[in-house]
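call fold target=ATP synthase gamma chain
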Amino acid sequence: MASLKSIKTKIISYKKTGTVTHAMEAVSAVKMRKSQERALAGRAYAAAALSVLKRLAGTADAERHALAREQLGKTCFVVITSDKGLAGSLNSAVIRRVEDEIRSRALPKNDIVIIAVGRRGGDYFTSRGYDVRVKHENVGDGVSESDIRMVTDNILAWHAAGEIGACVIAYQNFLSTFEQEAGVRQIVPITQEMITDMVKHIRPVKGKYAPAAAEEDKGPDVYTIEPDADEVLSVLLPKLLNTAIFHAFLEAKASEHSARMVAMKNATDKAKEMASDLTRTFNKVRQAVITREVSEITSGIEAMK
């Protein structure tokens, strides 16, 4: 049977652990609310921007644009994970989805280029011999769309040089505080099907940000683009592509803080449960010790009579 001292040490250890995890839970809860508000508020804008892109993508001018055409080259993966752990299966789920996508496309390592936003994804694929060209670490919650432009610029430069033929983004899509879904979306080449899929995952089925019941999936409108279609699309398409990447980042941040808050809450509850169980064990052992000592004293008194 364990000694009273060792049990008491474990109780103190669990209580200290619970204090730390509870503090981390409180911090994550504050960050979670801010990130959720930002991600949810941006859904309407992202959906509207992608809707514009969807209408343009079906036009003859857009279909001739370089970003809308398939070309030979490597496949670029933008992998959005967190810099820190303690968030349950958040990062591992994104990494698994990327590996599933690589297997489904039958891509060898030398045909893959990775842009890692977040240390966890970058370290994972670097250690496994993938070509992680760009790493963005310690990206704060307050990042703006212009800050994400650095990711978009790399994709555009590599695509224009013919080095990559397609680009895929992997991130955690925020569904609710207790539910996130790892998703993989193709963002280059830009097609109507790709935009339809992305908008479908941005707009929830019901609630404030759900599409109106009257909205219908219309085909591309006929646009007259001035002064020149190539000039306008060369400015507009990268901006809309950047919006899609930025919104994926907002969804990933909201998912990260939600998952970490839930993980820390579970850890706090478990620490309290273990401390409670050990306290009961401590009381039983102490009672057994007291009973044994009383018995020994009684036996001694009896022996002296």
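return ok
Helices lie at 4-57, 60-63, 90-105, 119-127, 145-160, 192-202, 229-304. The first strand starts at residue 74 and ends at 80.
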